[in-house]
From TrEMBL:
InterPro entries: cNMP-bd_dom, ERCC4_domain, Lsr2_DNA-bd. PROSITE patterns: CNMP_BINDING_3. This is Cyclic nucleotide-binding domain-containing protein. Coiled coil: none annotated. Residues 126-217 form the Cyclic nucleotide-binding domain.
Amino acid sequence: MAELLIALNPAEDSRLGYLLRIPQTGGDLLFRTSDTWPRVKALYCHPVSLEEWPSEPEIVERLPLRSCQRRGASIDVIVHRGRENRSQLVFTTARGRDAVFWQSPRTRKQARPNVRTPTARAQGIEELQILVDSHERYAYRFGAQQATTVAKALPCGDYGVAVDGRLVAGVERKSLADLVSSLIKGRLRYQIADLAALPRAAVVVEERYSQLFKLDRVRPAVVADGLAELQVRWPNVPIVFCETRPLAEEWTYRFLAAAHTWAITEPAALQRISGVTIDIAAPAETTGPSTAEVRAWAREAGLEVPDRGRLRPEIWQAWQDAH
């Protein structure tokens, strides 16, 4: 079985204290680097000749490889262990010179794209009020945008805006892992169906679309076909890939601001809103049973429901059919 080898660099005067040996079909590649794994930051790798590999290397790590494939300007490395098992060597340029960086999924997410997000108010709104679902973990703070947030239990989506107490737009946030998991398990279909009832809605993904085709625990074609099918079924709920979390946050802010302006200025929009949106300002007793009441009814009816969190749309539909 092929192995990724990391040895101590015998050159004591080098600031790159390790040698990284990557097996390749046309011949192994050898790099000097500063650590044994890119845990908190991407590691610079200086390519050197295989002649620098010691005759009796002091091996620090010997990692069996599941996969080590070159794809374009990068080498995807997957090792046999439970954690810290995926990484990538990227061949790029820095300050006009060729360079190689060793990165993991964690350090790649921390990387900043070569863009600067604007600071101007979206749609000229001085301070947009964004509703954040109270069940949302690690929610966007919109600290760099002209917006304030209010925590509220939303009927669908993780973020939304309201006009006259009525929800007019919503955005569901997804990491790549959450997107794939919810698609495979069928949750994404119900989430998009709920969003489609709003006048304006979208799903924002904190990743590039190209990363779908680097998945190794599920067939990429299955995920791509599933997303395409959802877009055809609900074309009014776009799925937008925004590369990084900050860019996804910026896109969410701009989308909700545009939806807020549209809801106020378009008379035809207001007519559509009055028929399909959910009145989030109304007290619970005028809008139907609470989640706890429906949960208790579902258990008595023999339906499987979680102990906490939202109920599936079919549970609410079953309650409505029964009453």
